[in-house]
Amino acid sequence: MFSGSIVALITPFTQDNEVDYVSLKQLVDYHVAAGTDGIVAVGTTGESATLTPEEHVKVVLKTIEFADGRLPVIAGTGANATHECVTFSRLLNNSGIAGCLSVTPYYNKPTQEGLFQHYKAIAQESDVPQILYNVPGRTAVDLLPETVARLAEIENIVALKDATGDLSRIAVHRELCGENFILLSGDDATGLDFIRQGGKGVISVTNNIAAEDMATMMRLALQGRFDEAEIIHQRLMPLHKNLFVESSPIPVKWAAHKMGLIANGDIRLPLTELSEAARPIVAQAMTEACIY
Length: 292
What we know:
The protein is of the alpha/beta class. The chain contains 12 helices and 8 strands.
């Protein structure tokens, strides 16, 4: 259902800090042409925390419109208030999305029981497949494998995006959740090894600016052609690392603008545009990866 190279899509803004729908269409067309397997619209890389609810829903709907059935669109529906996630799920139920991706609630630091009840409430209000998203480095809460296993018993919770970078969890998740539960990497630097150990794909930041390479690498990996996939992976490693030289998505938006994929690299406060000191680092990574 969900596999391969899935982009954690950036949300472009105009210089007036409004959503830039012209650039958004350009991004979607870029990913269709590159062979990207799916789009996450308004996930955390899409600056979901700083979009208004109205903007959030509209960006998802416009992404679906621009994709026009050419590739699946997964809606980011995460927030740190359960009722807000439920509202997004209800609003997008009949929109044509392929699924929802919900990050663990940030700042609140819920218990494991709180996380279970949070995701259970979201799943009960949605008709589409649900993807859990664990990124403790950004949220300060860790969705533990035992809780994932409990949630995997809920019919429409079908996958986990794991951005811990802890490859030892793959076998644990597989044992606890069964073979049919989909495991997706959320960490580009370890993404290929994640597939090697049984994962089904990567929801990727790097994909925003190296879409064709990421699609090819994932296709090779899922065919078991890891030696060929490794060559691409190593070439992209400077991006995997240095697109996080400052808080994501600051570097990747700067890089996307530099490549002409979006009209400008504007980002919403409290994030600010890439610093002068970091720009040569990202530019060098792009050169080493042979994408610019």
